[in-house]
Amino acid sequence: MGDVARLAGVSAQTVSRVSNGFAGVNEDTRRQVLDAMRELGYRPNSAARALRRGEFRTLGVITFSLSTLGNIRTLDAIATSAAREGYAVTLLPVAVPTQDEVNGAFSRLGELAVDAVIVIMEVHLLDAATVSVPPGVQVVVADSDAGDRYTVVDTDQAGGARDAVRHLLELGHGTVWHLAGPGDSFAAQRRANAWRATLDEAGCREVPPLVRGDWSAESGYRAGLRIAEEAGCTAVFVANDQMALGLLRALNERGRRVPEDVSVVGFDDIPEAASFLPPLTTVHQDFAEVGRLCVEGVLSKMREGGEERAEEYGTTLVPTRLVRRRSTAPPPAAAR
């Protein structure tokens, strides 16, 4: 730093301010310092700077499998938002969704240079008294109902499901079938509960049996073969777009036309949804906003410092919107 200061003709303090990105440095002076850094091959020592300032400019993210679209897109949004704020991301995958694995992930936080952690995890694994967050580490949770114990950011799962079911009912369908996600998924349960509640509120005389998949297109196909045999089924709300893709294939193979015979609504609005045959009506999730709010939340906690208080807990819901495409239509005349 002294060599850079001498070459640029400035003080070491000015070099420090430029290397740390602080404001209040004349633009010509800043350029002189940066030119001197390049000429001398100077790179700020991030490890030394972290020790001096007491922060590592790194956020930890604990998550389960990266095979699900929701986790991948949420992680991508978190990494993008963190980078905008000058932070890197360290991923701590939980290989098996057990309490011991969750405890192990939190324990590893104490060994890694992270300033805060974002958790993408089901609530039942954050419930146990044996889970302990390392002292001083701030936590925000995505996709959970743990708002009484943590700060939570989530998509409005129930609101999106209600919009999907109401759309089908307003088209004239007497009831709506539901192809749900796995039973241990918080998001799947929220969507299924909202599906059933919306049918009840609408006074539907028939509430079809819930059919489950595992988020994959293959599980949607298998479930679709069963649903296609239900002659009275004219509308299906599917808990994600990938299962909807499998359902569309099964309906096509069984000669059930979409939307002439059966209307289908998905959830997620993946980029490929508009290219399905027919283009899929679906619920759009704003993953970018979820990621931004998670990063904003942990950074705000870090800046405020101190121990978390119960009154700071709660859930922020990111709104969804229904994207209407060509997979939905009024039911066939014979079914009205």
Explain how this protein is built:
There is one protein chain. It is built from eleven helices and twelve strands. By secondary structure, the chain is of the alpha/beta class. A six-stranded parallel sheet has the order 2-1-3-4-5-11, with helices on both faces. Helix 5 crosses helix 11. The model has no long low-confidence stretch (mean pLDDT 85).
Structural class, by secondary structure, is alpha/beta
Name the beta content range.
15-25%
* N- and C-termini, Cα separation: 79 Å
* SSE pattern, N- to C-terminal: HHHHEHEHEEEHEHEHEHEEHEE
Query: Using only CA atoms, what is the Rg?
Result: 25 Å
Count the beta strands. 12
Number of helices: 11
Average residue-wise pLDDT: 85
* Stretches with pLDDT under 50, minimum 5 residues: none
Could you say which overall geometry the principal axes of the C-alpha atoms support?
elongated
Short description:
The chain is α/β, with parallel strands linked by helices. It has helices at 2-8, 12-19, 27-40, 46-53, 69-84, 99-109, 157-170, 186-201, 217-228, 241-253, 287-304; strands at residues 58-63, 88-93, 116-120, 138-142, 151-155, 177-180, 211-212, 235-238, 263-268, 281-284, 314-318, 321-323. The termini are far apart.
Question: SSE layout and pairings?
Answer:
Blueprint: H1 2-8, H2 12-19, H3 27-40, H4 46-53, E1 58-63, H5 69-84, E2 88-93, H6 99-109, E3 116-120, E4 138-142, E5 151-155, H7 157-170, E6 177-180, H8 186-201, E7 211-212, H9 217-228, E8 235-238, H10 241-253, E9 263-268, E10 281-284, H11 287-304, E11 314-318, E12 321-323
Parallel strand pairs: 1-2, 1-3, 3-4, 4-5, 5-11, 6-7, 6-8, 8-9, 9-10
Antiparallel strand pairs: 10-12
Helix pairs in contact: 1-3, 5-11, 7-8, 9-10
